[in-house]
């Protein structure tokens, strides 16, 4: 039986209050619920599923992941279908004091990359073309600097 879809991701964070302020206040994720289970505080965010993203507090003194080691590279979140929506998201993020690291044209998506308060890399993207469905080998690996005209 094949996997049908990705259900959710859980990111480890050092400080729950700071992480919630980022995911809710900067990115606009709605909170589904909060939980103190197994001795760790967790917050679950929903974008339509019971939860699509969760964060779990590891403590302010938790070590950071090694950027050169194995593990999660980034999590991507679709923010719309047009560059106008991506520009709007860029303005929202920057307007709330957060830095966009880079903007990339992937051929089938246009993407913004940034880091959360704990250094987890995030991608905010819009789908711009369904062409990859006909030729994924050639079109999914495009990587060029994106100029958003702002």
Q: What does it look like?
A:
The chain is α+β, with helices and mostly antiparallel strands. It has 2 domains: 1-59, Roll (2,3-Dihydroxybiphenyl 1,2-Dioxygenase, domain 1), CATH 3.10.180; 72-150, Roll (2,3-Dihydroxybiphenyl 1,2-Dioxygenase, domain 1). It contains 3 helices and 9 strands; from the N terminus they run E-H-E-E-E-E-H-E-E-E-H-E. It has a 5-stranded mixed sheet. Strand 2 and strand 3 (40-45) form a beta hairpin. The longest helix has 13 residues, at 83-95. The radius of gyration is 16 Å and the shape is globular. It starts with 8 loop residues before the first strand and ends in a 5-residue tail after the last strand. 17% of the residues are buried.
Query: Count of DSSP helices?
Result: 3
Principal-axes shape call: globular
Name the quaternary structure.
Answer: single chain
Q: Strand-residue fraction?
A: 25-35%
State the major sheet.
5 strands, mixed
**The CATH homology group name of the largest domain:** 2,3-Dihydroxybiphenyl 1,2-Dioxygenase, domain 1
The CATH topology assignment of the largest domain is 2,3-Dihydroxybiphenyl 1,2-Dioxygenase, domain 1
Spatially, the strands of the biggest sheet line up as 5-8-7-6-9
- Reading off the top of the CATH hierarchy, the class of the largest domain is best stated as Alpha Beta
């Amino acid at each position: 039986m094949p996997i049908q879809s990705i259900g959710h991701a859980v990111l480890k964070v050092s400080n729950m209050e700071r992480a919630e302020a980022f995911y809710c206040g900067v990115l606009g994720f709605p909170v589904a619920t909060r939980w103190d289970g197994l001795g760790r505080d967790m917050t679950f965010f929903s974008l339509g599923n019971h939860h699509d993203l969760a964060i779990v507090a590891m403590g302010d003194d938790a070590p950071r992941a090694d950027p050169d080691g194995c593990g999660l590279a980034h999590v991507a979140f679709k923010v719309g279908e047009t560059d106008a929506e991506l520009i709007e998201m860029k303005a929202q993020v920057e307007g709330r004091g957060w830095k966009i690291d880079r903007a990339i044209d992937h051929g089938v998506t246009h993407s913004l990359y940034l880091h959360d308060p704990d250094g987890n890399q995030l991608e905010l993207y819009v789908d711009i073309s369904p062409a990859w469905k006909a030729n994924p080998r050639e079109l999914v690996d495009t990587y060029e600097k994106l100029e958003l005209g702002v």
